[in-house]
Amino acid sequence: MKPVKAAVVGLGRLGGRHAENVARRVAGAELAALCDADAARLAVYAERLNVPRRTRDFDQLLAIDEIEAIVLVSPSVFHPEHISKALDAGKHVFSEKPLGVTAEDCLAAEQAVNRHPELVFMPGFMRRFDESYAFAHQRVKAGDIGKPLFFRGVSQDPAEGVREAIAFAPTSGGLFLDMAVHDIDLARWFLGSDPEAVWAIGDCYAYPEFAECGDIDNGSCLMKFKNGAMACLFAGRTAPHGYNVESEIVGTERILRISSVPQRNLVEIMDGGGVRRECFQRFLDRFGPSYLNEVQEFFDCVREGRKPEITVRDGARATRIAYKCKESLATGKLVETGL
Ligand SMILES: NC(=O)c1ccc[n+]([C@@H]2O[C@H](COP(=O)([O-])OP(=O)(O)OC[C@H]3O[C@@H](n4cnc5c(N)ncnc54)[C@H](O)[C@@H]3O)[C@@H](O)[C@H]2O)c1
Question: Atom of ligand 1 at shortest distance to CA of 15?
Fold first, then answer.
């Protein structure tokens, strides 16, 4: 079977990795074109990965007939427009999270996907493709923990990368849409339900710069799910020790914890600081294999003519819930999600 000819759009922190994966590691894919608004970055990746076609203009990219699939890693504010245009141009689409940065955005993206049942669309929630999360989910689905009643999710970026996060903040949609959206997706996935109400709090505890675009540096949220389950999420940009993602799923019979002490390997270092384990410093290190696995699944779906388990509805709902958290943070009130 011929490889699927693909283009990657947006070659920033994550897009560069997706482009490398599509070019070198994803079976059944061929990286045939690249698109980025930044000419210098475009040239670097086109040369490094030996990609024949490149453009700074998304519409021009869509006009290339031979491109069958688009891997979208543009800034979040462009996602709904890029998703709709790419699907209307007959391309299969993998889109990084979030689906958009407003509720209307999500609806537009969802409608575009529903207009094209003949095409594959997949939202990128890479944690579902991490070995440990996938294993835990199998256990929960098989009923091993009894009835899941509580999900706890912690996602912290290292303080070391905070300048990057501040620069990215104006187009990120804010802490809940940009970061907690992963935990929202996990909470829905593990608890098998949607939250009916959310209450979020947070502030700029260390970096007032986030407030300039209405964002915060640390926040948390309590959720009540329609099936009675609970979730508590915490997201922050100031972890002193590294990139820290940990989760807990409490069931009536068992409790599962994933990375409760985050560690990059099994080595313990004994020195003047005591006994310690090193932590991952970047999301690309912690979830490197997951970014590859999810895009591999997308291309497998395109080649095999099937749809991924994760749907546009999951992407839209997680984004909508994150937006409700943002609303709750702004009003200080408990917000009904309407789901
Ligand atoms: N799943 C995850 O864990 C994860 C991690 C990081 C980023 N992301 C998502 O990936 C997306 C990109 O994030 P990033 O951190 O790589 O951003 P980034 O700012 O590092 O890179 C964005 C790239 O897009 C290019 N660009 C800007 N406007 C464009 C346009 N109109 N058309 C084409 N290219 C354009 C920029 O020049 C830049 O190269 C965001 O939506 C973000 O939420 C997801």
Answer: 16
Query: Atom 21 (ligand 1): residue with closest C-alpha?
Result: 12
Phi, psi at residue 166, to the nearest 5°?
-65, -40
Ligand 1 neighbours (beta carbon < 6 A): 9-15, 35-38, 41, 58, 73-76, 78, 96-97, 124, 126, 168, 178, 283
Which one-letter DSSP state was computed for residue 179?
Answer: I
Q: Identify the CATH homologous superfamily for domain 128-289+318-336.
A: Dihydrodipicolinate Reductase; domain 2 (3.30.360.10)
Per residue in 211-258, pLDDT (tens digit) is 999 999 999 999 999 999 999 999 999 999 999 999 999 999 999 999
Q: Would you say residue 74 has pLDDT above 90?
A: yes
Instruction: Using the predicted structure, report yes or no on whether residue 102 has a pLDDT greater than 90.
Output: no
CA–CA separation, 292 vs 144, rounded Å? 28
- The domain at 4-125+300-308 falls in which architecture? 3-Layer(aba) Sandwich (3.40)
Token digits of residue 17:
């990795």
pLDDT for 99 beyond 90: no
Residue closest by Cα to atom 6 of ligand 1: 14
Measured in Å, residue 56 CA sits from the centre of ligand 1 at: 14
Residues linked to residue 256 through DSSP beta bridges, in sequence order: 249
Residues 269-291: pLDDT tens digits?
999 989 999 999 999 999 999 99
Work out the end-to-end distance of the chain between its first and last CA atoms, rounded to an integer number of angstroms. Answer: 42
